[in-house]
Specification:
By secondary structure, the chain is mainly α. Among the domains are: 165 residues, Citrate Synthase, domain 1; 100 residues, Orthogonal Bundle (Cytochrome p450-Terp, domain 2). The chain is 56% helix and 3% strand. It has a three-stranded antiparallel sheet with strand order 1-2-3. A hairpin with a 2-residue loop joins strand 2 and strand 3. The chain is globular and about 75 Å long. The two termini are 21 Å apart.
């Protein structure tokens, strides 16, 4: 007897990885991969990168509109108040065994839930306040992880500084330049949301079960940790370091061609969605060049540009958001181990926006599978006859 196809499952076979499958409706993010368009709540990413701060972008993602001056001031005050970490969480950080920074971030983000007085309050107002607290504190956590891993003590946030400046200050101990602050702020804006990427989808699936907001973000962090999602910019920087900043153009070319000949993937190129240049790469390319020139470390940008040219010639592939973010973060003094956690520092704003949207109009996410196993029913063989 062969398996009969259920009417509910009739139709074309699903593509691997749910490619091009529309899983839900959302008013948060729009992507047109053929034309290289990315928009948050209808606003083009190029306009947001040029004119909006990360705080304004957070407000936009959460509320659907850009904030008035008064609303922005209120949000900045709320973020400043939430930024200091509970002492118990800092103690936990110091006693954790040596581990990947994403592992530490996953554990500590979960621990934050124990110190949120509104953890069991499911009202929309409380859920929003938790989204603000998580966005503020994930940045403080990543900076503290960087400090403790480097054998230094955590630095208290400065209530006068904005989100981008505070992160760089809490990580390095130095007050960042306006160029560094703006570069990091732009990077946060560019990474804030990207429709139903793997981590956002994981967070929405968790939210659909009506679990608490912290658990949804831990699901997102665990998914982001995977090397096929959040780790490409670290791989890009390792490749650049392997070649070396003083390498001649022909050595850069030889290294890349050798990798291609071995059929190795060159990190930072190509994208599942975009069939033209990733619009986020446009701004990070400029940030990488400007920071390199200001700090006397332009070699990383020049090397990256050479690799980009070669990849376009050989593979017709464009850089994605990860490629130029690598040299941008490195010149900002950010350790490579923190590149993926910094992704979470920004993306938590998008994760929480999607989770709040899921809570507001929830239905349990329960897809079906295209069964490819043995025929049903399969004859059962008694134990003594196997």
């Amino acid at each position: 007897m062969t398996t009969e196809t259920s009417p509910a499952l009739a139709g074309p076979k699903p593509r691997g990885g749910l490619e091009d499958v529309v899983a839900t409706s959302s008013a948060i993010c729009y992507i047109d991969g053929d034309r290289g368009i990315l928009a948050y709540r209808g606003y083009d990413i190029h306009d947001l990168a040029r004119h909006a701060s990360f705080e304004e972008t957070c407000y936009l993602l959460w509320h659907g509109e850009l904030p008035t001056r008064a609303a922005l001031g209120d949000l900045q005050s709320q973020l400043a108040a939430a930024r200091p970490l509970p002492e118990a969480v800092l103690r936990l950080l110091k006693v954790l065994p040596p581990a990947n920074a994403m592992d530490q971030l996953r554990t500590l983000s979960s621990a934050l839930a124990h110190y949120d007085p509104e953890i069991d309050d499911r009202s929309p107002q409380a859920q929003y306040r938790k989204a603000v607290r998580l966005t503020a504190r994930l940045a403080s956590l990543v900076a503290a992880i960087g400090r403790v891993t480097g054998g230094k003590g955590p630095i208290e946030p400065d209530p006068v500084m904005g989100h981008a400046a505070n992160f760089l200050y809490m990580l390095t101990g130095d007050r960042p330049s306006s160029t560094a602050t703006r570069a990091f702020d732009v990077a946060l804006v560019l990474h804030a949301d990207h429709e139903l990427n793997a981590s956002t989808f994981a967070a929405r699936v968790a939210a659909a079960t009506l679990t608490d907001l912290y658990s949804t973000i831990v699901a997102g962090i665990g998914t982001l940790k995977g090397p096929l999602h959040g780790g490409a910019n670290a791989d890009v920087m390792q490749m650049l370091l392997e070649v070396g900043p003083d390498a001649a153009p022909d050595r850069i070319e030889q290294t890349v061609r050798a990798k291609l000949a071995r059929k190795e993937k060159i990190p930072g190129f190509g994208h599942r969605v975009y069939h033209t240049e990733d619009p986020r790469a446009t701004h990070l390319r400029r940030m990488s060049r400007e920071l390199g020139e200001q700090t006397g470390q332009r070699a990383w940008f020049d090397m990256s540009q050479r690799i980009e040219t070669l990849m376009k010639e050989e593979k017709r592939l464009n850089p994605n958001v990860d490629f130029y973010s690598a040299s941008t973060y490195y010149v900002l003094g950010i350790p490579i181990d923190l590149f993926t956690p910094i992704f979470a520092v920004s993306r938590v704003s998008g994760w929480t926006a999607h989770v709040l949207e899921q809570y507001a109009n929830n239905r349990l996410i329960r897809p079906r599978a295209d069964y490819t196993g043995p025929d049903v029913p399969r004859p059962f063989v008694p134990r003594e006859d196997r």
